[in-house]
Amino acid sequence: MSNPVLHEGKRAPAFTLPATREDRIRLTELRGRWVVVYFYPKDLTAGCTTEACDFRDQMESFDSLGVVVLGVSPDDLERHEVFSAQEGLNFPLLADRDSRVGLKYGAWREKNDYGRKYMGIVRSTFVIDPSGKIARVFDNVRVRGHVAKVLAAVEEKMAE
């Protein structure tokens, strides 16, 4: 049960999810703004903490461009709140408990860990333009340097 990753130029699938910092986030209410949606496997793990902290540390740059950053994982809101507080995150984390949104974006798919196959979130980031279309896709992300690449891509797309 694998879903291909969305391609640039496609409309970003709408979603409404419970979030930290706010009651819920509805993607359609962010129309007119640039949005970065990043999918990550699990709160309070090494790679996911590094990625979240990198976004946290670059939020001033994203904010200055008017870009909304949203982190999405299958963890529940309570765990998101703990993670957010522990790391001082300054952007919302969204709880995609059944991974339906991850599936729509192609981030929920088969993974292979040393021959063990299972379904899970493949680290992926989507830059969504103000019209609601996918402007840039980062699939199977490596954490180191990723946020800088996302910021550069947003700046490049905004300049087009």
Q: Report the span from N to C terminus.
A: 36 Å
**What is the CATH level 1 assignment?**
Alpha Beta
Overall number of domains: 1
Low-pLDDT segments, ≥5 res: none
Helix content: 25-40%
Topology, element by element:
Elements: E1 16-18, E2 24-26, E3 35-39, H1 46-64, E4 68-73, H2 77-87, E5 93-95, H3 100-105, E6 108-113, E7 116-121, E8 124-128, E9 134-138, H4 146-159
Parallel strand pairs: 3-4, 4-5
Antiparallel strand pairs: 1-2, 3-8, 6-7, 8-9
Short structural description:
The protein has 160 residues and is an alpha/beta fold. Helices cover 31% and strands 26% of the residues.
Write structural notes for this entry.
The chain has 4 helices and 9 strands. The protein has 160 residues and is of the alpha/beta class. It has a 5-stranded mixed beta sheet. The protein has a two-stranded antiparallel sheet with strand order 1-2. A two-stranded antiparallel ribbon has the order 6-7. The N and C termini lie far apart (36 Å). The protein has a single domain (16-159), classed as Glutaredoxin, CATH 3.40.30. The mean pLDDT is 95. It is globular. It has helices at residues 46-64, 77-87, 100-105, 146-159; strands at residues 16-18, 24-26, 35-39, 68-73, 93-95, 108-113, 116-121, 124-128, 134-138. Helix 1 packs parallel to helix 4.
Q: Any key phrases for this structure?
A:
five-stranded mixed beta sheet; globular; 160 residues; Glutaredoxin; two-stranded antiparallel sheet; single chain; alpha/beta; 4 helices
